[in-house]
Amino acid sequence: MSRLSAIRPVYWISGVLLVVAVVVPLLVPTYAKKDPHLWGFPFFYWYQLLWVFLSAILVSISYRLLRAEERRRRAEQGLGDPEKDGDQ
Amino acid sequence: MNTKVDWVQLIIVVVIFAGVTAMGFMAARWRRTGNLDTLDEWGLGGRGFGTFITWFLLGGDLYTAYTFIAVPAAMYATGAISGFFAVPYTIVAYPIVFVFMARLWSVSHRHGYVTPADFVQGRYGSKLLSLAVAVTGILALMPYIALQLVGMQAVFETMGLGGNNTLAKDLPLLIAFAVLAAYTYSSGLRAPAMIAFVKDFLIYIVILVAIFYLPHVLGGWDAIFHAAQDKMAKPNQVTGKPTGSFIPTDAGYVSYWTLGLGSAMALFMYPHSVTAVLSTKTRNVVRRNAAILPAYSLLLGLLALLGFMAIKANVNVKGLDGLANPQLAIPRLFDQEFPSWFAGIAFAAIAVGALVPAAIMSIAAANLFTRNIYRAFIKPSATPAQEAKVSKLASLLVKVGALVFVLGMDKTIALNLQLLGGIWILQTFPAIVVGLYTRWFHRYALLAGWAVAMVFGTVSAYNVVNPATKKHFGGSLANIPFTHTPAYIALTAFVINVIVVVVLTFVLRAAKVADGQDTTHPSDYTADRGDPGVADVIEPAKS
């Protein structure tokens, strides 16, 4: 377990968020039903569309956590900022 | 039936098409860094795309004319399991990509890899394994490019183009394709990157208008869903089973989630996705995009629902040959419910939507041929300029191949053919993705796992017989061996693949069979732009 405990909490948190974003939208029995309706949409349809947003939010949070971690690591190793001249 | 040419639609499509063509040729001079005589330039657009351009490029690359036509067509024909799985598929794809793609970016930039097979070669030191990955990529891309043509064809047919003889019927397609081939040849990846802006913009407009306007004309969402539910519940005349599934029942759960997960894992194994990713400037561009690309997934979900609208609108899907063709559902829906000028814009969006991915796919297939077949086996001493030349020619050949594919095959199997490509491409996942984390798998074990899974997947797909037409390759779902649960063949084959790889790795390691030379270093996988050994992008010359 020594290698596992060496993994920083940031990676654990990100990992959990990403696993949730992958697994929950695939749990079909949890949403294969008609009710409650929303604006005429059966639950099955609107719930999956809702997950588009939830998944995007989870990935964004992971990204922010990891980016902070990566910057810290690069600073420690004395590497430069790869995005110094903008990003379009 | 539409045998009269709709001139308003035709003029709009031709004008937009001409504009896009001009852009395609001009793209050669966009963000110019030097000559186009290397694969990094021609095949990866100079490797300098940022988040903004990449968002359009990947969006244009992943959400294709196939998406526009085939997903709603599947919804129209058989409902949720065959169509709406595209929504969870594109939701779960991005977290998966987020995890491993940055590592592939880093190692590829440090070593100058252009294709996924390049990475496999460097990591495992096995030409055979690299060849297997390259051939699988080319095999999977061919029907996919062909599918883009099917989308275009459906549009042209709806506009009333298409005569009685083969030449007149396929002429518009040939012209569109010749033009595409010409600017891809001259501009490389910059052409689709530039055209993607137009394409995505058009598609967003069309879908948003359709989503708000059509329910208003068709009597509201409630009525649309009811019409779909009624159609799916009706027994099929041939089999006596329900036509399709409105909401999956117990029996369909596994099918639904395996289709979603299998497709998601396969999505970024496709060489054209990798091409777009490797054209980015820094390691984090792809991660940022994983967070913002879901905007397209929402669009895709709404698009799928257009298939249900076509049911409510009772569109006529008889093709010119008098047979029902669900692929025509969406073009006919637009033709029937919108004024001519707007239908014209929608058709242009689909036609241009076919060009962007077709261009990127042909570039990706050409790069695979050049790097992993030509340079690996035919001419190891090839210079960068020779590589670029071979790639340009190969991109033309790939397109001709796709054209032959499309003119000689039954169009109703378009979606399934693409799914067969998905079955194949997913079998490269162990070598590529697992290889990004560990070198534990033995190269020959990976090769054996791949071979077993390819055969299993193809045979399983062949054995799926369409009950109505009695044709093979009738679908992408088959019972998991020793059970009565249908699942996506690609994922079943993938599980078999992994089992074979793990078992054989133990055997080969125990037998001390020589493994290949790994030329990568652990630090390669986290490298970023500006680090020692990472080729820096050449800044576009300021004009």
From TrEMBL, chain A:
<protein>
    <submittedName>
        <fullName>Na+/proline symporter</fullName>
    </submittedName>
</protein>
<keyword id="KW-0812">Transmembrane</keyword>
<dbReference type="Pfam" id="PF11755">
    <property type="entry name" value="DUF3311"/>
</dbReference>
<feature type="transmembrane region" description="Helical">
    <location>
        <begin position="44"/>
        <end position="66"/>
    </location>
</feature>
<dbReference type="InterPro" id="IPR021741">
    <property type="entry name" value="DUF3311"/>
</dbReference>
<keyword id="KW-0472">Membrane</keyword>
<feature type="transmembrane region" description="Helical">
    <location>
        <begin position="12"/>
        <end position="32"/>
    </location>
</feature>
<keyword id="KW-1133">Transmembrane helix</keyword>
UniProtKB/TrEMBL annotation, chain B:
<comment type="similarity">
    <text>Belongs to the sodium:solute symporter (SSF) (TC 2.A.21) family.</text>
</comment>
<feature type="transmembrane region" description="Helical">
    <location>
        <begin position="415"/>
        <end position="437"/>
    </location>
</feature>
<dbReference type="InterPro" id="IPR001734">
    <property type="entry name" value="Na/solute_symporter"/>
</dbReference>
<dbReference type="InterPro" id="IPR050277">
    <property type="entry name" value="Sodium:Solute_Symporter"/>
</dbReference>
<keyword id="KW-0812">Transmembrane</keyword>
<feature type="transmembrane region" description="Helical">
    <location>
        <begin position="75"/>
        <end position="101"/>
    </location>
</feature>
<feature type="transmembrane region" description="Helical">
    <location>
        <begin position="444"/>
        <end position="465"/>
    </location>
</feature>
<keyword id="KW-0472">Membrane</keyword>
<feature type="transmembrane region" description="Helical">
    <location>
        <begin position="290"/>
        <end position="311"/>
    </location>
</feature>
<keyword id="KW-0813">Transport</keyword>
<feature type="transmembrane region" description="Helical">
    <location>
        <begin position="6"/>
        <end position="28"/>
    </location>
</feature>
<feature type="transmembrane region" description="Helical">
    <location>
        <begin position="390"/>
        <end position="409"/>
    </location>
</feature>
<feature type="transmembrane region" description="Helical">
    <location>
        <begin position="128"/>
        <end position="151"/>
    </location>
</feature>
<feature type="transmembrane region" description="Helical">
    <location>
        <begin position="256"/>
        <end position="278"/>
    </location>
</feature>
<dbReference type="InterPro" id="IPR038377">
    <property type="entry name" value="Na/Glc_symporter_sf"/>
</dbReference>
<feature type="transmembrane region" description="Helical">
    <location>
        <begin position="341"/>
        <end position="369"/>
    </location>
</feature>
<keyword id="KW-1133">Transmembrane helix</keyword>
<feature type="transmembrane region" description="Helical">
    <location>
        <begin position="201"/>
        <end position="221"/>
    </location>
</feature>
<feature type="transmembrane region" description="Helical">
    <location>
        <begin position="171"/>
        <end position="189"/>
    </location>
</feature>
<feature type="transmembrane region" description="Helical">
    <location>
        <begin position="485"/>
        <end position="508"/>
    </location>
</feature>
<dbReference type="Pfam" id="PF00474">
    <property type="entry name" value="SSF"/>
</dbReference>
<feature type="transmembrane region" description="Helical">
    <location>
        <begin position="49"/>
        <end position="69"/>
    </location>
</feature>
